C-alpha cells in the first residue's frame, strides 16, 4: 500500500460534500437570487444570478434551469450575460419574466459602474418561445436610472404585473435623508415599453415593533390572494457584512396605486435566506424560491467549488395577515430508501419528518451537528447547529405542540418547515457521511433523497 501526501491544494479545498445535490446550485462557482420563475407550457423555468467565473459575487449573469415537475431539473445555457458598451456592462442584475403580447420578455436591472457611480437601469430582453434564446433590446434601457427627484441611486429588480389594460412595474429602492429606510417605486405603462413614474408604492420606517427593515429594499414581489395582497421585500443595509439581512412580508391591499399594509413578519427564521422570487403556476399556486447564502469566511469560500443555492420550491399562502410556507408536495418524489436507526452512516441528502419531542433529532458526523428539538412544552421548535466552519447557532420557531415538522438536509443546506413557518440554515459537515439519531425513534421517519435530479 502506498500513502501519498495530499497536495497543498487538496488540503485547502472545501469538501465536495457541502454541495447541495437536489437543490439548484450553479454548474460551478457562485449563485445568488432566484430570478424570473414562470410556469409555461407545462414546464417550470427558473433563472438565477450567477457568476460562472469565480466562487464569489461578481458581474451577474442569468443562469437557467427548467423542470416538468419541480423535482427533476435540466440545465440550460446562460440566458443573459453582461456586455461591454451596453447598459448591463457590469451586470445583469435581478428582475422578472413576463409574457407580453404573446412573447417572453425578461425585465432586468442593467448595471454600469460601481458604488456611488453605479447606474441601475431597467433593461429588457425578448426570448424565443422555448425561453432558451434571448435578444437584448437594441434601443438601450427602458428606464435609464432613478427619477431625479428621488436622490437615491437604488433603482433595481423590476417586478411587473398586469392591472386591467396597463402594466405596473415595481422597483426596490431606499431613502437617503434622515434615518434611511426602504421603499418601493411604481411605474405604469400601456404596453410594457413606455413607462411613467407614478411615485412611491410603499415605504416603512427602519424599524416596526422591533423588526429591522434595513435601509434599502431589494427584489419587491407582489402576490394577490383573495381580498388581500402581499408585498415581499428583501431588506438590506448596504455594505453590511454578509449574509445579507432577511426578507419580510407585508399584507394589505392596493389603494389608489399605493400599497397599504402591515408587517406579516420574516419569511424565514434562519440566517441564510434572502431575495425570494414568486410566481403563480397553472394550478393557481403561489410558488416561492429563495437564495440560500453561505456562512463561511471568505478564505474558505475562495476554495469552494459551489457557493450559494436556491431553496426547494415552497408554496406560499396568504391569509389572516400571515404568510405561510410549505414545501411543495411534489418533493415526496425525491424519497429513495427509508433510513433506519441501525443503518450505516448515509450521505447528507435526507428528509426527516415527524413530531420531535424534547430530546429531539440529531444529525451528526461526530464533528458537526444539527439538532431539532421541541421546547416550551412543545410550543416552540429549536434548531441548533454546531460545526467548525459556521460556528454555533440556534434558531426558534413557534409551533403548536405535536404538529409535524419536515427537515431537508442537502449537503450543507438545511431547510426546516413547521406550522407554515420556514427556517433555512447551513451545517458544514466535516465528513461525507452522517448518522441520524432520536431517542424516541417512533417520532421520526427518515429518507435518503435522490441527489441526481439536477442535470
Ligand atoms: C439581492 C441583490 C439584488 C440585485 C442582485 C445582484 O441579493 O442585491 O438587489 O439585483 O442581488 O446580484
TrEMBL record:
Q: Where is the signal peptide?
A: none
Q: State the InterPro entries in the record.
A: ConA-like_dom_sf, GH32_Enzymes, Glyco_hydro_32, Glyco_hydro_32_N, Glyco_hydro_beta-prop_sf
Q: For this protein, what is the EC number?
A: 3.2.1.26
Protein's GO biological process: carbohydrate metabolic process
Q: Which UniProt keywords apply?
A: Glycosidase, Hydrolase
The protein's GO terms of the molecular function aspect are:
beta-fructofuranosidase activity
Domain Glycosyl hydrolase family 32 N-terminal as annotated: residue spans: 23-327
Identify the enzyme class.
hydrolase
Show the SUPFAM superfamilies listed in the entry.
Answer: Arabinanase/levansucrase/invertase (SSF75005), Concanavalin A-like lectins/glucanases (SSF49899)
Family membership noted in the UniProt record: Belongs to the glycosyl hydrolase 32 family.
Name of the protein described by the UniProt record: beta-fructofuranosidase
Q: Which organism is it from?
A: Jiangella aurantiaca
Amino acid at each position: 500500500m502506498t500513502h501519498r501526501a495530499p497536495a497543498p491544494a487538496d488540503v485547502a479545498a472545501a469538501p465536495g460534500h457541502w454541495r447541495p445535490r437536489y437543490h439548484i446550485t450553479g454548474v460551478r462557482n457562485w449563485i445568488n437570487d432566484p430570478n424570473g420563475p414562470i410556469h409555461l407550457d407545462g414546464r417550470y423555468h427558473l433563472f438565477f444570478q450567477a457568476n460562472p467565473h469565480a466562487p464569489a459575487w461578481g458581474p451577474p449573469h442569468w443562469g437557467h434551469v427548467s423542470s416538468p415537475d419541480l423535482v427533476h431539473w435540466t440545465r440550460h445555457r446562460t440566458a443573459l450575460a453582461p456586455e461591454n458598451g451596453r447598459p448591463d456592462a457590469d451586470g445583469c442584475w435581478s428582475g422578472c419574466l413576463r409574457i407580453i403580447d404573446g412573447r417572453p420578455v425578461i425585465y432586468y436591472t442593467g448595471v454600469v459602474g460601481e458604488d456611488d457611480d453605479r447606474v441601475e437601469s431597467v433593461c429588457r430582453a425578448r426570448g424565443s418561445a422555448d425561453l432558451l434564446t434571448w435578444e437584448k433590446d437594441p434601443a438601450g434601457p427602458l428606464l435609464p436610472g432613478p427619477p431625479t427627484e428621488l436622490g437615491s441611486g437604488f433603482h433595481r429588480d423590476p417586478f411587473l404585473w398586469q392591472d386591467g389594460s396597463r402594466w405596473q412595474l415595481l422597483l426596490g429602492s431606499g431613502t437617503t435623508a434622515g434615518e434611511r429606510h426602504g421603499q418601493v417605486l411604481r411605474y405604469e405603462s400601456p404596453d410594457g415599453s413606455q413607462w411613467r413614474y407614478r411615485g412611491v408604492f410603499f415605504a416603512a420606517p427602519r424599524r416596526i415593533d422591533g423588526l429591522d427593515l434595513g435601509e434599502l429594499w431589494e427584489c419587491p414581489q407582489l402576490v394577490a390572494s383573495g381580498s388581500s395582497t402581499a408585498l415581499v421585500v428583501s431588506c438590506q443595509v448596504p455594505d453590511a457584512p454578509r449574509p445579507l439581512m432577511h426578507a419580510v412580508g407585508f399584507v394589505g391591499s392596493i389603494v389608489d396605486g399605493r400599497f397599504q399594509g402591515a408587517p406579516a413578519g420574516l419569511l424565514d427564521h434562519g440566517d441564510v435566506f434572502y431575495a425570494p422570487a414568486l410566481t403563480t403556476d397553472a394550478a393557481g399556486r403561489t410558488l416561492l424560491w429563495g437564495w440560500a447564502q453561505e456562512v463561511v469566511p471568505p478564505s474558505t469560500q475562495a476554495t469552494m467549488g459551489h457557493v450559494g443555492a436556491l431553496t426547494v420550491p415552497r408554496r406560499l399562502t396568504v391569509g389572516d395577515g400571515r404568510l405561510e410556507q410549505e414545501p411543495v408536495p411534489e418533493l415526496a418524489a425525491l424519497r429513495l430508501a427509508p433510513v433506519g436507526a441501525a443503518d450505516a452512516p448515509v450521505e447528507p441528502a435526507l428528509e426527516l419528518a415527524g413530531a420531535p419531542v424534547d430530546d429531539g433529532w440529531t444529525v451528526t458526523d461526530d464533528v458537526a451537528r444539527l439538532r431539532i428539538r421541541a421546547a416550551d412544552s412543545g410550543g416552540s421548535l429549536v434548531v441548533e447547529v454546531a460545526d467548525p466552519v459556521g460556528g454555533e447557532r440556534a434558531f426558534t420557531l413557534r409551533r403548536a405542540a405535536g404538529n409535524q415538522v419536515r427537515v431537508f438536509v442537502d449537503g450543507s443546506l438545511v431547510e426546516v418547515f413547521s406550522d407554515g413557518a420556514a427556517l433555512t440554515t447551513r451545517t458544514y459537515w466535516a465528513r461525507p457521511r452522517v448518522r441520524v439519531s432520536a431517542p424516541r425513534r417512533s417520532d421520526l421517519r427518515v429518507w435518503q433523497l435522490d441527489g441526481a435530479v439536477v442535470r
